[in-house]
Amino acid sequence: MQADDDLIDAYCGVGSFGLIAADKVKSVRDVDSERTTIEDARFNTRKNKVENANFYIGNADQVMNRLAKNNENTSVIIAIAPKKGLLKGFIEASVKMQPREFIYLSFNPDTLVRDLKYFKQNAYETKAITPIDVAPQTLDMMCICRLDKEN
Questions:
Q1: Number of domains present in the structure of the chain
Q2: Full domain range(s) for residue 124
Q3: Residue 6 in marked binding region
Q4: Is residue 1 part of a domain?
Q5: Which of 112, 109, 104 is nearest to 139 (CA)?
Q6: Of 62, 63, 71, 85, which residue is least crowded by CB atoms under 10 Å?
């Protein structure tokens, strides 16, 4: 990430990724459908004296579509996908916003493959996939993927 980047943290929960990145980027936009988690994210940003964060309450695909329709671009998107994967509308809006980099966290390999194919069709190249054993001795794992916009 770069100092002039605008970061969108979709499905942000309590805003952990945005908090970690806030001092490295120009601005952070946290998006989550749960009002209580956005309230917690706001609390966390105040407690950590983060001043460059904004918050959006709503379904991530609807918020992203609204931002894309307003011709808002972003440099980096982080998305912690639900088990069912990213909704097609979310991916379409994300692609329209033309981020240079997309970080995708997935707990479902089937939907991850499906979604990565769609990103590939829209000029995003998978640069790295890192599996993480989030619950040892179980079948649960998370994959962190980095996708870059192709030139």
A1: 1
A2: 6-149
A3: no
A4: no
A5: 109
A6: 71
| Residue 56, C-beta contacts closer than 8 angstroms, at least 6 positions apart | 29, 30, 31, 32, 38, 63
CATH of the domain at 87: 3.40.50.150
Q: What pLDDT does 65 receive?
A: 92
Q: Given the DSSP bridges, would you call strands 124-132 and 101-106 parallel, antiparallel or unpaired?
A: unpaired
Per the annotation, does 32 bind a ligand? yes
pTM: 0.91
Tokens of 87: 């909704």
The one-character DSSP state at 33 is S
Distance CA 39, CA 124 (A): 33
DSSP 42-99: HHHHHHTT--SEEEEES-HHHHHHHHHHTT---SEEEEE--TT---HHHHHHHHHT--
Tell me 134's DSSP state.
S
